[in-house]
Design goal:
Shape: elongated
Structural class: alpha+beta
Strand content: 35-45%
Radius of gyration: 30 Å
Strand order of the largest sheet: 1-2
Order of helices and strands: HEE
Number of strands: 2
C-alpha cells in the first residue's frame, strides 16, 4: 500500500514539473513573439523631440538663519517626445 501511494505521489510531482516547464516555455515563446512584433513595427517610426521647456528660478530657503538670506536655484528641463512616421 505504501509503495503504490509513493508511486502516485511521484507521478503527480513529475507531472507538475512537466507542466511548469511547459508553462515557462509557452511564456518565453509569447514574450519572444511580442518582442519580435514590437521590433518589426518599430522600424517604420522614429521618436523625435516635440517640445522642450526650461524653468529657471531663485527662491528663498527656509533656514534658521533668515538674516543671511540664503537663496536656492531651481533648474528644470522638461522634454516631450512623439512618434514621427517616415
Amino acid at each position: 500500500m505504501k509503495f503504490r501511494t509513493l508511486k502516485i505521489l511521484r507521478a503527480r510531482r513529475n507531472a507538475r514539473k512537466r507542466k511548469q516547464t511547459t508553462d515557462r516555455a509557452v511564456q518565453a515563446l509569447i514574450i519572444g513573439l511580442a518582442l519580435a512584433l514590437v521590433l518589426l513595427v518599430g522600424c517604420n517610426h522614429r521618436i523625435v523631440p516635440y517640445e522642450t521647456q526650461l524653468e529657471y528660478g531663485i527662491t528663498d530657503t527656509d533656514s534658521e538663519d533668515s538674516e543671511k538670506g540664503k537663496m536656492s536655484e531651481k533648474k528644470v528641463i522638461t522634454q516631450k517626445w512623439r512618434w514621427q512616421h517616415d
